[in-house]
Amino acid sequence: MENIVMERKYTADEYYAALEWIRERSELINGGIDYMPTPNIRHQQILLALSSQINAYLSARGSGFFVLTSADVKLDDNNIVVPDIFVASDRSKLDDVKFNGAPELIIEIASDTPSDEYFKKLVLYKETGVREYWIVDPKSEKITLYFFEAERFAESFGFGETVNVAIFGQDDPLAINLAQTV
User: In CATH, what number is assigned to the domain containing residue 81?
Assistant: First the structure.
């Protein structure tokens, strides 16, 4: 199922008011409402494996970072995304409904249907201050990492390879290998 995009442009306030009648998963991207497909089982298994590894790493180190899954992130007044996973350090940006601002890391797990949403989000995340963006593709079993603050821009890894989370530094990096958990 491909994302469906509403033609009219909305603000964040209008989007939240519309959620009362929109009974589907959706995001506000550049003022347009995008409906998202329901995640399949494989998607959820990958989400759980990644978020569990990240959360265990953060809990063991008391780093101040925290991880949330499938929660609203208000990047600005025209963009509210619901990434599969995001990692942030500034708890003051949390309210009862959403995270306000750009988290340090966003991870998206690709749906079965190819879409331009990941390219749109790549540009959006870079422009709004996200430091690192991952696209996890279950079909090809690849993870593509985009580093918006580093000298290198992108790297791809297979599920059997170890991926280090760059935002935590190189002294004690979080190393993720999806082949071991999915």
Answer: 3.90.1570.10
